[in-house]
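thread: overnight batch results

M.L. [08:02]
morning all. the overnight job finished for the chain we discussed friday. pasting input first so we're all looking at the same thing
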Amino acid sequence: PSVSPQASPSTGTAAPATMQPSGSPAVSASPAPAQTPAAPTVFTWPVKGELLRGFAVETLSYDQTMGDWRTHAGVDIAAEEGRKVWAAGEGTVSEVYEDPMMGVTVVIEHPDGVISTYSNLAADPLVAVGDTVDTGAEIGAVGDTAIAESAMEPHLHLEMTKEGAALDPVTLLPDQL
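M.L. [08:03]
and the structure it wrote out:
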């Protein structure tokens, strides 16, 4: 007569559903909380001044420095050299660099996904990568470092994008005084 092995009740053959492989965290059965999108950032003008050249990505505008017609993915705001430049909105400084054509540049990422880029700044901006800034925090001064716009009067070149698409900064900034 053959003897069949018997499973003892204390050593059942099925592992409990809650067991995890060694070192693995337990997985929760409850759904993850929904991510709330960031509230839109309230922007302000980084300098006060006349708009010298507007946003033009679907049409060409004449570039007096380069002597040709081209798109312009930002706005140029007249301001004398040395005038303080403020963060248009709260955020984190993601880049500070010298662009060969647009000069000293600071890039700020805002909580709502908008990215603002300030070019033609004076050397030695007041912020560094990783700094968090509030709306209106001083980030640098207007300079004359953008050789691509050197034929123009002193100004700040401001660009804004969201998800890689250029935005007209004027549509995000309050009406000028």
